[in-house]
Automatic annotation (TrEMBL):
Residues 106-184 form the Beta-ketoacyl-[acyl-carrier-protein] synthase III N-terminal domain. Residues 253-257 are annotated as: ACP-binding. The keyword Lipid metabolism applies. Signal peptide: none annotated. This is Beta-ketoacyl-[acyl-carrier-protein] synthase III. The gene is fabH.
Amino acid sequence: MKGVKVVGFGHYCPENIISNKDLENIVDTTDEWITKRTGIKERRISSGEGTVELAYKAAVAALKNSNCGSDDIDLIIVATTSPDKIMPSTACSIQGLLGCNKAVAFDISAACSGFVYSLIVASSLIKGTDKKRALVIGAEVLSRIVDWNDRGTCILFGDGAGAAVIELSNEEEGIVSTCFSSDGGLGEKSLVAGQLELNTPFAKEKISEKRYIEMKGAEVFKFAVSVLPDVVNDLLKKADERIENIKYIVPHQANLRIINEAARRLDIDKDKFYINVDKYGNTSAASIPIALSELFEKGLIKRGDKIIIAAFGGGLTWAGALIKF
Ligand code: UT7
């Protein structure tokens, strides 16, 4: 039986730490409000590094932790909503920097679900084509698309990158079950960013640029608390697995209240969820790979452990995977 296993992780976040107190000097907010409503205490914000640079540093760490060289990689997928450029793709820039000359490289846009989408696409390509080993990265400099005058959103987001190396395996471990879905109608109404200008000699009506994240927080919150337990239950069902056998659930790190509510709905202990939203805020596509990389760095995952990753976000999109190590 052909499976796909995760070989190693790496992550990199900017060194610049911005606390809730720092944000009190920028918008009308308080440390107390942010902590109570989101669980976030601080986030990393780029003071000059772009998405390619963050992604590159995470990729180098993942390759090192996987004992892989540039020539071992056949496929590079980067999930991002905040690329440095429209063209070339972030993945192609990473390919050039790493010298992964025999790889094919492209980006995936699925907001906060982007890393899980990319993992699923990479895993399918590994099973179905001649690509046998992939570098999958989630990387964001969200600070460039955050409206620093909007207290409803600017307190939530952070910058960072996480990466994984996955490869074809004949062993039992690996990506056991997956799910991914989207709802484009709901997405347009509740969470948008980065509208590009259309101002050509042929445009009947000019479309102006709307660069920043605009979110109906309460609507996205409602969506998130319902979809997170659904993803977990779907993955367990597909894998014929029980929640008791899952060591950690690694959710998209958007808001501690969303995670607590998901734990309540699933009727499980909150401790089963790995949480680092307090340190990084919401880093969108980077949040799950940063968390996975931290889990490994801390030695919290052993061979044979099973974990679930579960994401939700703009699009709207949601996705998950059950992985056995
Ligand atoms: O990764 C993408 C997915 N995104 C998410 O998962 C985000 C989901 N949504 C959320 O996490 C929450 O909706 C927020 C954290 C964004 C907002 O929390 P909330 O409990 O839904 O607050 P709210 O938007 O209903 O606002 C409550 C009050 C309002 O004041 P009034 O109208 O009651 O006087 C806001 O103006 O809190 C006010 N407020 C703030 N006050 C202090 C909003 N932002 C702030 C702030 N500091 N930063």
